[in-house]
Amino acid sequence: MLPLLQYVPLPTTVDPLFFKQLADLKLKGGLEEKEVDFEGVFNNAPGAAPATGLQSNRLTIRDLDAGVAQELPTRGGGGEGRRASTVLVRGKAFNVNTIERFKECDRGAFLRECVQSLWQSIKNGEADANPAVLVQARLLVFADLKKWHFHHWCALPVIQPPTNTGVRGGRIGSVRHALGDTMARQVADHYAGDGESHALQHVFWVECSESDNPDEQKVIGVQALPQMCCRKMCRMQIKLRAVEAVEANVEALIKKHQNDPSSELTLFERVLQNAVPTLAFVDPSHVEGVAGWPLRNILAYIYYHFVSRDACGGSDKPSIDDNSNWWLRVLCLREKKNGTLDLDASQVLLLDLGSNEDDVKLWQKCEIPKYLGGWERNVAGRPGPRRTDLASTLDPQRLAVDAAQLNLRLMSWRLFPELDLPLLNRTSCLLLGAGTLGCAVARTLVGWGIRRITFVDQGVVSYSNPVRQSLFTYQDSVDGLGKAEAAAKRLSEIAPNLQVRGVQMGIPMPGHAVPASMRAQVAMEIETLEELVADHDAVFLLTDTRESRWLPSLLCASAQKPLINCALGFESYLVMRHGLDREAHVESDRLGCYFCNDVVAPLDSTANRTLDQQCTVTRPGVAPIAAALAVEILVSMVHHPRFKSIFDKGLGSGKMLERQNSRSLDRQDSNGPLHLESPLGPIPHQVRGFLGSWEQISVSGVRFPRCTACSSAVCCEYAARGHEFLFEVFDAPNVLEKLTGLDEMHRATEETAIDWDDAEGEDF
Fold this sequence. Notes:
By secondary structure, this protein is α/β, with parallel strands linked by helices. The chain has an eight-stranded mixed beta sheet with strand order 21-20-19-22-23-24-27-28, with helices on both faces. Helix 15 (436-447) crosses helix 21. The radius of gyration is 40 Å and the shape is elongated.
């Protein structure tokens, strides 16, 4: 009885980039457990496997399928650097949600689908054109995305042939020894010259000329797998049966001459040279006399299509008895380190495929054949999963970015599926004020994934700031750093992927006259503020004084920029969003701004005030509450279809506004503005809170036609006269009252006042 053919398992390794792609896909897909396609490669180069004690090259799982991995990180260069002998393997990964699911997964059912796919590719001819389908991998994965630990178990299932495969004479020898120098060099030339096909087809026929004289034989070419060689296999059987009748001890002769290459060829060896069909495959094995794992399914293909008298077909179907064995010569091709074929390391195996055609026919008709799971072994050498820890190998900055996004991505799984994280990442925010409110707003914005933030403040960090303002430290106050720059620096240290900028400057204000010596500097501050408002998607107004809010309110009303205003009292807070018109300078019923409740122009609010009145003295918990509400209002606006065009440049604001039928973008109807329901709930106009009574209310109000900040008259005057108009307001705030008609309203009120003293003596 011939010794059975042995195989070396194909170990696997997973490229870290594959895990990164899989993690991104999991976060994007949420709780859905589905199979995803991936690609892997193996080759027959010597590599480092012998040094590591491995008996075979590894299958490297490296990329999700191109159709799956769109918009995911990929390696550069595509497939241009692929070696001619590199075999591309397709597989499927199944990423489960929990470690318990990973442990309890029905691996049998998981593999049956793979074996069914293999079997169908053999039966329906798919493997004829693409032999790569004969090597398929399955990967079971659980990704712990908080720790960046990946539990994975890979299987390379193989179909069991209907009969045992024997190896005649152990092995014939190397390709050079078995074929001779001339034919061996011809095989090497064909192998090197057809690199494009080898990159996808790791197995092919070697077609040799037929001659009884080995010296006259030559390699005609290499051809793909289809059944063109069936009849040759049948003819070969008749010749070998005749030779076996003459040779009394073929096996002994083969063994004898294998040890003495210079001896004269036996009759069996002469027939062998031109009669046995020769199959070559890219062999990852490093062990003499032992084939690589991919040969298993290649032989299953051979058994199905060739090891049968019915497979020969045609009128010249040979007459052979039931005891005739089927033979196949296999060239196990292995390379040198320089990428050329190693004719001495590549070995030749003469395989006895058996003679029982009844077993073969039953096997060919079965719905799904017997198979081996091919589950790989763990580091302990036993069948079991492996664990890869990427936290220690990944760039710490990248880990910080992914960890910061993790909470947001998990929201989209169940709680907030409408989350538009890319839009939040693109949204830019201008923070006017880097004090207690500015620090709290910035931290909350970063928590929502907003990456571009600009601070504007003219103050420096004082010793009283660090305990209340979360972006500053004691050392910042010792060094006397500017608030805007210090806040930007600290935020970058917290989240290194941010685009943060600090602009150290003041905001010109009504009632604060500008001396001639300062006009140039103030003009530059105005221009900078105009540019910043135009360059950002949303503005947060977080300053201390009332008059410092006037210029930003005017600029945002003119530029139609979303503005969210926060104001604090000792135990109260106001958070409001300013209304937006479809088109600037046109009266409408939009919601009001911070100044729409005023009937006087803003003045210098710090003059003749004591220290406790000049500073914003509040309960420490008020500012964080107001800051959180301000950011939540912005995020709700970003996700509302009415406002989305403002933040998402790709939508085009014109088309969005057309759909509003020329209505105000933020119109108050009979239900008030609270009818604007975003996926996160109603979007209020104003939120007022009172810690003294533990109350919070949402109110709304329309624009005041005589508003000193957002009325049509003020916006038009600013558009017409620009900085000249602004300097007039800074020097004399009553300009605004005259422009808006507030002065006339005051006079009319005084003229219609009732003198109640005169009526006291009336006898009713």
